[in-house]
Amino acid sequence: MVSDCGMVFGTSDIMKRYILFLALPVMALLQSYIVIAQKHTPHDSTYFKTYPGSLTARVYTSYKYAMVGFPSPAGETKYLAHTKYGLGIGATYNNFTLNVAYGIGYLDNNKADKSKGLDFQLHLFPYKWAADAVFTSYKGAYNGSNNAGTARNNNGNTQNIKLDFIGLSLYRVPNANKFSYRAAMVQNEWQKKSAGSLLYGANIYYGQIKSDSTLVITKDDNSVLQPVNNVHFIAAGPGVGYAYTLVAAQHFFLTGSLAANLDVIFTTEQSDVINNNKTSVNPLAIYKAAAGYNSDSWSIAAIVGGNALLFKGDAENKPSYMSTGQFKIFVAKKIMLKHKS
Hints:
- The structure is a single chain.
- The chain has helices at 13-37, 181-185, and strands at 2-4, 48-50, 54-70, 77-81, 85-93, 96-104, 116-124, 129-143, 157-172, 189-191, 195-210, 216-219, 225-228, 230-248, 252-270, 275-294, 298-311, 320-336.
- It is mostly beta strands.
- The chain has a ten-stranded antiparallel β-barrel with strand order 3-4-8-9-11-14-15-16-17-18. Strands 2-10 form a two-stranded antiparallel ribbon. Strands 12-13 form a two-stranded antiparallel ribbon.
- The chain starts with a strand and ends in a 5-residue tail after the last strand.
């Protein structure tokens, strides 16, 4: 289990209901993970090595990102969260991981006004499974477009913009006896030979982008310009993908993982004058990548992972998009606390 967290502030009633809706499958997944983690899981030791009874300690730097883009008659309207670079520490014991990071503002002094909120991510890798739960909620964003009429102040900051993204994905990893997600993502295993695995599973996500003023201007079926200040969507669907780790000289590795999903997405656009609903089928991608050095004792690597999806409003022909994720650079040390008898 891997978790990362930050500051908390209030969420909308829709998000609260959605969080409660997802709480049961997440808790069931955690319970199953605890049971599986306590059992011996067979694997081919010529491909990767495990370290029962070990503690993996790490220090890292991280950067989290969230962005959304809307098509409009004036061109793309794009909003980006202003997040801080973070310095953190963490540890993994018997496949349970906790990471804690603190935002460092002086690393990017050119961004005085920061987004505030919560970014919590839970990554589980029980035997033959990969699960990701994400809860991202930011208040305050940067308007990356030049469109007139959208929410922004003189400095380009949009403190009244709220970005929320929450969801769960679960994928089967059939070749887990040779391929290790943990070696690349939580560093408590060591992939010594190249291997990969097919992925198949499903996801469910909820997203909301809300502003106190005009979020984006769209055009209705009669070509009349309409302001929008609240967009939310629910996306769910199946997906397939592939994950692979390329190993050189046993110690240097490059891991890539991509799951492509075809989701049914229910989108609502709202303002004081409109309430539009749209059902569409659009792609969603869940990606992970890592590169670095691994051994019996030390790991040094960079990791990136996130989600990217398309959703369609009622009026515009082009879809909107939303993307969230994080980037990390870490150094980890495996510490043997006990040895097999």
